[in-house]
Amino acid sequence: MGTIGLFLSGAVLFLNxxxxxxxxxxxxxxxxxxxVGAIQTISPLYLVFVSDQTNWTLYNYSSIxxxxxxxxxxxxxxxxxxxxxxxxxxxxxxxxxSVVYTLVSIIQxxxxxxxxTWAFWAYLWFLFYLSMSCGKEIDAYTGKVAIxxxxxxxxxxxxxxxxxxxxxxxxxxxxxxxxxxxxLYFLFLNINKGSEKQLASK
Length: 202
Hints:
Blueprint lengths: L2 H18 L5 H24 L5 H25 L5 H23 L4 H21 L6 H24 L6 H33 L1
Helix pairs in contact: 1-2, 1-6, 2-3, 3-4, 4-5, 5-6, 6-7
């Protein structure tokens, strides 16, 4: 994804997370999803048309569509008050594709940071599937995951790139530290959620 695309996606995911935890109005964030989703769909179309059409170029640009179409699908679902079942199954498909991107990042490019990022996104899209298509009551948890990932995988990396420090050892150390902290935080949320269910069942 392009740096600006990452930056805007960070804003969208942050707002979507706030919506899931009940802190933002659905209709208001839906229109921002619509705006950014349109950008993230139109821009890769143009880039594909003017590109060299090689397989890895198409592979890289196709990732932008995953985000853009998700934002558009979510926006329409909220605005039209549709059943989220279809969006959930689309999220499952995207989650599987994200696993492929994770593996390719490791095997083809040896890019561990990018692989971790795609693994995070695969996890988030899978949570959307569980919530929207399987009826799991995990919106609050998914919202917290979305808010954290909006910073760790999108906003902070894009800011590092735009300020020219993404390759600096200090910036890379900070990002890996944040990634580890994120994994630990998600584990804590899961353990805490399990404890609450046990208490509720007594």
